[in-house]
Amino acid sequence: MALTSEKVTIPVEKLKWMYETMVKSRYFEDTMVEAYNEGKQPVFNIGAGPVPGEMHLSTGQEPAAVGICAHLQKEDTVTSPHRPHHHAIAKGVDLKRMTAEMFGKVTGLGKGKGGHMHLFDPDVKFSCGGIIAAGIPHAVGAALAAKKKGKDWVAVTFVGEGAANAGGFHESLNLAAVWKLPLIVVVEDNAYGISVSKRDSTAVESNDKRAAAYGIAGAYVANNDPLEMYRVSEEAVKRARSGAGPTIIEIETHRHLGHFQGDPELYRDMEEVPGLRKLDPIMKLRELMIVEGIATEEEIESLETTAKKEVDEAYAFARESEYPKPEEALEDVFSK
C-alpha cells in the first residue's frame, strides 16, 4: 500500500516513519528547550544550567531531514551544521548517547567533549561540522571515497541558506561537479542567516538556481512540504547512486524559534511567527494521513507515543549519566 498523488508515490510504512521521526524531532527540541533554560533565568546566562553554551534548535524544519533520509542507507554519509538534531535523528544517530553528549556527560557520543554543535556517530556515518559551510568539504571527501571504492554510497550535506554564500560551498560544489561525485547538498532556507534576511544577502531567488553554474541538477521545494522533499530527494539519490553527479536541493522551511535559544529576534516581525506555526508540517502530514486513510487517529497516536517514549528515555539516560572526571579531560584527545 502506498500514498500516490499526482507527483509522488510513498510506501505507507515509509510515510509513517517520516511522521514518527518528525514527531520525535519536534518533541526532542521541545524537551531540550526546557532543559536548556534551567538555571538561565530570570537573566539569560549562556554559561549557566546543565546544558551550557549556545543551543540552536530545528523546530519547524523537520521535513528537510525526513524527506531525504527516507532514501538513505546506513553506509551513506550525512554532515550537518550547527542546527543538527533533526538530521541526526532522521539518520538514526543513537539518541541516548546524542542527548548525553549535549549534557556533557561521559556516556555521550564524544564522551561529553563535543557538545551540541559537534555531534559525531561513526556507526551511522553522521557528523556535525559545527557552523556555516564547514560540513560540505567533509561530505565531498566522503563522496570521493565512495567513488574511489566503487561503492554506490551517497553523501548528503545540510546547510543553511546563508552558507550558500560562503566560499566552501562553491569550492566544494565545483570539485564535486568536476569529479561527478555522489553528493547532495540540501539548503534549508529558513529566511535568516543569523539575523540577516535572505533578501538582503543573496542575489538569486533560490539557491538551487546556482546548480546551473556547475552543470549539475537543482531542485526547489516550496512550503516546507515533506512529500515534495521526498520526491525530489528520491530523484537526487538515484542520480547520485548511478554516477550522474551532484544535486542541490533548496527547501523553503520555517524556523519557529530564534537563531539560538535566548535570541531576542529583534530583526524579524514577531507577528509572523504564529503564521508560520499554522503551517506546521507535522500537523499537515497528520491530517493528510487521516484523510487519505493511511492511518487512524489511534494508529497515529501510537506513533506519537512511541516517538515520545524514546525521547523521554534518552533524556532520563542523559540526566542519570555521570560527568567526566577532571583527570579524564584529555583522554582520547591526544594519542599516546
From TrEMBL:
Pfam families: E1_dh. This is Thiamine pyrophosphate-dependent dehydrogenase E1 component subunit alpha. GO terms for biological process: pyruvate decarboxylation to acetyl-CoA. Coiled coil: none annotated. GO terms for molecular function: pyruvate dehydrogenase (acetyl-transferring) activity. The keyword Lipid metabolism does not apply. SUPFAM superfamilies: Thiamin diphosphate-binding fold (THDP-binding) (SSF52518). It comes from Peribacillus glennii. InterPro entries: DH_E1, PDH_E1_Alpha_Subunit, THDP-binding. Keywords: Oxidoreductase, Thiamine pyrophosphate. It comes from the Bacteria. Residues 53-327 form the Dehydrogenase E1 component domain. PANTHER family: PYRUVATE DEHYDROGENASE E1 COMPONENT SUBUNIT ALPHA, PYRUVATE DEHYDROGENASE E1 COMPONENT, ALPHA SUBUNIT BACTERIAL AND ORGANELLAR. Its cofactor is thiamine diphosphate.
